[in-house]
Amino acid sequence: MTATTSRPILGIALEPFGWHPAAFAEVGADPLEATSAEHWVGLARSAEVTAADLVTFEDSFTLTARDRLSGRFDATLLAARLAPSVPRIGLVPTITTTHTEPFHASKAVATLDYVSGGRAGVLAATTGAADDAALVGRKGPQTPASRAEEAREYIEVLRDLWDSWEDDAIIKDRATGRFIDRDRLHYIDFRGEYFSVKGPSITPRPPQGSPPVIVRVTGAQTEALAARADVAIVPAAVDESLVETVSRLRAAGVARVLVDVTVHLADSERTARRRIEKLDRREPADDDTLVFAGTGESLARAVAGWQALGFDGARLRPGVNAVDLPRLRSAVTPLLHGSPRTGSLREILGLAPAVNRFVAVKGA
């Protein structure tokens, strides 16, 4: 499947004040604002009116430079809190597959899918940090290869647990006093190197059946893992590198591929770069992708250029929310073709309906 030349898929990565670690200082924000629901509702609504198709929420066991002054919410719980306030966009929390259990994650994401009316997704991530391992205390740091294999099992268990209830398992039969038809619930009986899960889930099958799984590509191991996902996110790089990566991901069967880019917008590239320099003097950013500095018009051209290379769109990481989110709305959104997509997140992303594997086996 190749990228289209229609309206690009746009994601926005929401952080408390922006992707730059000095973003709060740029606008004189009170770090305590990030602990209020109103602050996050405002960010999500800003992303929605910016015509984003989805928003992602970061998560980690230990604090990063961007959140050490404000703390960090559990990403899935945060997304569930925001769901009633933003009726259109997809909500994609980060779930760290290292040190956590897929059974608990599966029911949390299924609940988010119900709360949002079918707009939940999962950004699967791993961690090799020694501090994270010490915080949990269950095992030591792992190699990238073992983390990726564990994440592969994790994703498989998530999908199996979502399928462990058939869509019509709840029958509410007053005559017999049965709430569910137990013949439509299934043990997944998963046994792998890292997990052994019997199931079934304790949460009914999500409205989407299988919420989309997203993986960010950071190396060979995560690229192989992305082949098991619905969407891959690739850090921005020179065109030649991007073409090679997207070609491999398409050949592996990845349905949607997005470019990941941190954006700083202004009336000119020179002004945007001065903003970055000012932020870096307070605290240098350690970006793991190319940083875009320029106007809304040039960003729209860049996204169109990535589409021409074979990508479906981009995930934008606003450098400073208070500055860059309004500019995305005023200078980028008007340049996009057509109206924002609606429906479930699978429909927004143009993914095929999820087939329940247990039903498929029964019907074979």
From TrEMBL:
Domain of life: Bacteria
Domain Luciferase-like per the UniProt entry, residue ranges: 24-295
Transmembrane segments: none
Protein name as catalogued: LLM class flavin-dependent oxidoreductase
Gene3D superfamilies: Luciferase-like domain
Native species: Tsukamurella spumae
GO molecular function, one term: monooxygenase activity
Keywords, alphabetical: Flavoprotein, FMN, Monooxygenase, Oxidoreductase
Alphabetized SUPFAM superfamilies for the sequence: Bacterial luciferase-like
Lineage: Bacteria, Bacillati, Actinomycetota, Actinomycetes, Mycobacteriales
InterPro entries: Diverse_substr_monoxygenases (IPR051260), Luciferase-like_dom (IPR011251), Luciferase-like_sf (IPR036661)
Binding-site residues, FMN: D59, T94
